[in-house]
Amino acid sequence: MWRRLLIVAACCLIFVVPSLSGEAKKVVTHLPGFDGPLPFYLETGYVSVEEDNGVELFYHFVKSERNPATDPVILWLSGGPGCSGFSGLVYEVGPLNYVVVPYNGSLPQLVSNPYSWTKMANFLYLDSPVGSGFSYARDPKGYDVGDYSSSSQVVTFLTKWFNDHPQYLSNPFYVGGSSYAGKVSPIIANYILEEIEERHHPLINLKGYIVGNPITGSNIEENFRVPYAHGVGIISDQQYEIAVESCKGDYVTSTNKICAEVMNVIQKLISEVSLGHIMEDKCVHISPKPINDEHIQLRRPPPRHGTNCFTYKYYLSYFWANYKGSRDALGIREGTVNEWVRCNFNLPYVSDVPSNIDYHHNLTSKGYRALVYSGDHDLLVPFLSTHSWIRSFNYPIVDDWRAWHLDGQAAGFTIKYNNLTFATLKGAGHTAVEYEPKRGFAMAQRWIDNMSL
Q: What pTM, to 2 d.p., does this model score?
């Protein structure tokens, strides 16, 4: 079997191109598990963002399949914190998907994603913070980062990347991501704004940001789980009424005894469903045995679910990314990341921004565009909480709450305030566009092209 995979790997061509900074970037034309040449331009590489500790951030760059010379450049980050930007490329908004079939020891297969956002924009998928994906630090101290420092490193990355790719400097630029990336994206955008205001070069053509089911860092998301759970029938009227009366709107830190008792009951009821998507099965974890093979040496395979589970494809990515042929094709430096995991939750990361709501307000009040979207079946970051902090800005309504449509049906609901658009994706969960890719694609295309949803 592995002999066949080595033959496949042999055809995975990499062209090494010198960069302006003297580093090397790789143009990848083939990938293991994908039949034939890639139908899009893929470049990978590392950018040094901190010399003292040798911090190197790894990226995938995919050119727009429409008009790369004028289409926006979008930096896409994944959540966690600690999840690889590769998640964005193969699960959310990128040009590839895994073929979801039971893993039998052979290399997982890849196919084209018909709803890839790269059909209308250039995308930078970044492994940030350091320690996620294939990003690494030569000194262990380099992994000691948080919201502030990792966001600053991303700006350093962008400065160097645009210096190496000056042909994209005039393109509209957006920062984007979902979940925890929704927390740091407006922080990064604010840092870029400061660079622009201070006339630091290169002058990135920042136009705004895109965040999905975004975490703020405050208690607002957890507080809104209670009214959301009541609204969808997870908790009863009586339990909700007691919680409202005794907790006074604070379901997280209240010291009221009755509040604590009813919240204990409510939390048990909430635990009966999947937080990421209340309609999905709660999947049983099965721990596979460690794999040791001449071509793939793995010690920490993720919990395995049944193929009926939405997260099964995450399991497949572990084996694909740790296959030597895949690493060679992507240009991964040997000895830097011995074992790739989709989300590295063992990082010494510090969530040192208590709330990013002010960052949202600063950007949108200065005229920068924002698309904030939510999967309406997400209990982790309920759409109620997201719309609540948006409403707190008291912006005038340009287009009041209404359905937006696709194929003659409601695809979700939306409201527009000034330059900020809020939208829900009907039937979607926490990583909304991953659950509803066709609706997510339509939403993004209309917004990117300055059309009404």
A: 0.91
